[in-house]
Amino acid sequence: MVVRRGRLGTVCARGADQALLGGRSTSPLGDGMDTPLHSDVAWLLTLRAAERARFLALVAHELTVWGRPIAFPEGTPFEMRLRLERLRQLNEIQHRVSSYIGYALGPDEDVRFLPIVARYVLEPRDPYLRESTTRAWTSTRKSFVAVP
Is there a domain that residue 32 lies in? Predict the structure, then answer.
């Protein structure tokens, strides 16, 4: 943990796990092109902080549902190592989402971190995990109704 400059509190100092994220750009929103990630982040920014937190809490719940098949202890040793790595990546995604919920509910939400969190959910490098996390996000967004 490190102390934030100019702010109260601490932030995770591990940084982005580049093995988790796909893509070439170092920008959290990619290379400037309009993508589903851009439109989802833009949509999230239209919500009040409490509604962003509620949406992300629902996404976190869906991630646990979509992640359950990864945990089944079946298969070859290679498949088991792959499942373990996917669980590790899913755990890191959950960590990022739940951490942002805490910031969104607090007095010092910094929306500059929102694209990074969305990218963790929507763009993990592993194709199977990406399909699962995208389904979790998409199904949550389809059923989400913001409270005015």
Answer: no
From residue 131, alpha-carbon distances to 31, 90, 121 in Å are: 22, 12, 10
Residue 129 is assigned to a structural domain of this protein:
yes
**Alpha-carbon span 2 to 46, nearest angstrom:** 30
Which pLDDT score is estimated for 15?
47
**Beta-carbon contacts of residue 1 (< 8 Å; ≥ 6 apart):** 10, 11, 12, 13
For residue 56, pLDDT over 90 is answered with: yes
Boundaries of domain holding 73:
41-143
The CA-based diameter of the chain, rounded to the nearest angstrom, is: 50
> pTM of the prediction?
0.76
